[in-house]
Amino acid sequence: MQLSDEHEALRATVEEFAQKEVAPVIGEYYIKEKFPYDLVAQMGEMGLFGLPVPEEYDGMGGDYVALCVALEELGRVDQSVAITLEAGVSLGIMPLLRFGSDEQKGRWLPDLATGRHLGGFGLTEAGGGSDAGATRTTAKLDGDHWVINGTKAFITNSGTDITSLVTVTAVTDKQSDGKKEISAILVPSGTPGFTVAPSYSKVGWNASDTHELSFDDVRVPAENLVGTRGRGYAQFLSILDEGRVAIAALSTGAAQGCVDESLRYAREREAFGHAIGSYQGIQFKIAEMEARTVCARLAWHDAAEKMAAGQPFKKEAAVAKLVSSNAAMDNARDATQIFGGYGFMNEYPVARHYRDSKILEIGEGTSEVQKILIARHLGM
Ligand SMILES: Cc1cc2nc3c(=O)[nH]c(=O)nc-3n(C[C@H](O)[C@H](O)[C@H](O)COP(=O)(O)OP(=O)(O)OC[C@H]3O[C@@H](n4cnc5c(N)ncnc54)[C@H](O)[C@@H]3O)c2cc1C
């Protein structure tokens, strides 16, 4: 896929922002495990949260491919910042944009699209993420209110000072075939009974925001149902298809960042009287890293092209997520090796990529789940 002139201009703008504004400061946020509010505000002002949101909701009126282009450039420099944008749009905004009522869109989207507020999506529970249909959280109608009880695990952007809402999946009834009826319901931050646990201590993505959430007789108006009652799970699966392309773009950026850093370091660092980049053992590593990155980019471009053309892209999204997250993890391991001891120091970008890239193989559908989806599309 050839980037359009608009997408290329956006890519260059985000590249400059990532290199000039994010790169110099993010290491300290990461080490202190602080959320980078000032960078999020800048991304909001740049319109990044509103890229695929129509202008009537204060968005940029662009498309989802634009979001992916931005994510690749951010992921190249730092994954915490990139995932804050990815989750803010793909999990916070898209369920409302795709399935919300006009009233919900008018009320919530302008603040989300401008980055003044963040939204989260709570699907995963302690009892299971891949098997999302195993949801135990319940929502029962009591007059004109839903009463929600349960817990959600690992929810991104759910506990910042600017988080305005979390949309959660909950069992709202039993279907005629005995299966659970799962619906999506919007819960505003601060609703009584809605508790956000302290931040997790994570291996990576340390400047991003992740919490366990609990709901104890949380009452929200019946009109906070997002989309169609009983379609919450199906709605979320379609949101995840797009989200996989976004994560694939972010992962490609991470893989590229490892190539960038390794190339630079291999030219500078000397051992046995020569730059380590003059040794074929290092050159082969970087050549493999480059090959993985190119394949990852081709894969997300392929999925994005089909998505933008309105063609089926489920399999392509799964392939892109699988290939690119593997590329990020493999490149992070090789880049850390090239950096030697410095690669193990948190202040170095490759160390952050080493810690961060593992979750790319887990979040928004594990690699095994991607393989299940691909095999299903092959008729297995
Ligand atoms: C930092 C972070 C942020 C996150 N943000 C969010 C968020 O914002 N919203 C949200 O809802 N969730 C979020 N998650 C949750 C994430 O999506 C889940 O962790 C992920 O989907 C995997 O679910 P699980 O952890 O329950 O693992 P499990 O589903 O229990 O899987 C455990 C292992 O079993 C494998 N497995 C499961 N089923 C099969 C099978 N049929 N065949 C073969 N292997 C199988 C899996 O691939 C995995 O290797 C986040 C997680 C993290 C760590």
Structure description:
This protein has 380 residues and is an alpha+beta fold. It folds into 3 domains: 5-118, Acyl-CoA dehydrogenase/oxidase, N-terminal domain (Butyryl-Coa Dehydrogenase, subunit A, domain 1); 120-230, Beta Barrel (Butyryl-CoA Dehydrogenase, subunit A, domain 2), CATH 2.40.110.10; 234-377, Butyryl-CoA Dehydrogenase, subunit A, domain 3 (Up-down Bundle). The chain is 52% helix and 17% strand. The chain has helices spanning 5-32, 37-45, 64-77, 79-99, 102-113, 232-268, 280-308, 314-339, 349-360, 367-377, and strands at 118-122, 138-142, 145-156, 163-174, 180-188, 194-196, 210-221, 225-226, 270-271, 274-275. The strands form 3 sheets. It has a 4-stranded mixed β-sheet with strand order 1-4-5-8, covered by helices on one side. Bound molecules: flavin-adenine dinucleotide. Flavin-adenine dinucleotide is lined by residues 87, 91, 120-124, 128-131, 154-156, 202, 205, 210, 359, 362-366, 368-369. Flavin-adenine dinucleotide binds at residues 87, 91, 120-124, 128-131, 154-156, 202, 205, 210, 359, 362-366, 368-369. Pfam families: Acyl-CoA_dh_1, Acyl-CoA_dh_M, Acyl-CoA_dh_N. It comes from Actinomycetospora succinea.
- Using the coordinates shown, work out and report the CATH topology of the largest domain: Butyryl-CoA Dehydrogenase, subunit A, domain 3
Q: How does the major sheet shape up? A: 4 strands, mixed
- The structural class is alpha+beta
Q: According to CATH, what is the class of the largest domain?
A: Mainly Alpha
Work out the helicity level.
40-55%
Bound ions, cofactors and other small molecules, one mention each: flavin-adenine dinucleotide
Domain Acyl-CoA dehydrogenase/oxidase N-terminal: 4-115
Domain Acyl-CoA dehydrogenase/oxidase C-terminal: 230-378
Domain Acyl-CoA oxidase/dehydrogenase middle: 121-218
GO molecular function: acyl-CoA dehydrogenase activity; flavin adenine dinucleotide binding
